[in-house]
Amino acid sequence: MDNSLDGHNLMEFCRHLEGFEKPWCAQSRAELSEKKIDALRKAGCRLIYFGLESGSDRTLKALNKGITSKEMSDFIRRLHSRGIVPFPSLMVGAPGERRADFEKTLLFVVDHSQYLDVVNVYPFTASPASEFASQHREPDENTTMRLLQFIQTCQDFGLRVCVGEQSAEYVMFTRVAHSASRRRT
Predict the structure, then answer these.
(1) Helical H segments across the chain, by residue range
(2) 52 Cβ partners below 8 Å, 6+ apart?
(3) With contact defined as beta carbons under 8 Å apart, do 149 and 109 qualify?
């Protein structure tokens, strides 16, 4: 698992892995080109974990994500069409998240459930050195209820849910390790 996939040497990296025939997963921003996605698949990448964060463009902008929900949607579809499992991470309760923003996130996940197998979700927490912490911005007061509703909605649509980064890393590892062991039998 690579903590930061994509860089000036990604294509060369993929060419080196092509002959190994070992599945692997990575983390990336949702900005990989089709050419890079194709190279990743050919190199054995089977799952990409990425920060979707929200299905609301207003929330994505407030988080300085630098990408829109439409671009996220296109990324998910491109990964899926090439046989790479999209594994998005989302947050609930970001400062300023309105009910309508949360509902857009729910709708985004439901609309993409056919492309997803598992999602990671966590309640918003400001990192100590983040802009949110320095501005003393607090998570939305409805965060816990929204988190529970998010989990239930995902489960209703047949999606598995991880809560927090460590469980997401475990799922990524076991998913790829399991697919490798199935190939050997």
Answers:
(1) 10-17, 34-42, 57-62, 69-81, 99-111, 131-134, 143-156, 165-184
(2) 30, 72, 88, 89, 90, 108
(3) no
pLDDT at 178: 60
pLDDT, one tens digit per residue, over 80-134 is 999 999 999 999 988 888 999 999 999 999 999 999 999 999 887 766 676 666 6
Per-domain residue ranges of the chain: 2-184
Residue with tokens 């003393």: 136
Single-letter code of the amino acid located at 5? L
At the fourth CATH level, the homologous superfamily of domain 2-184 is pyruvate-formate lyase- activating enzyme (3.80.30.10)
Amino acid identity of residue 103, one-letter, is E
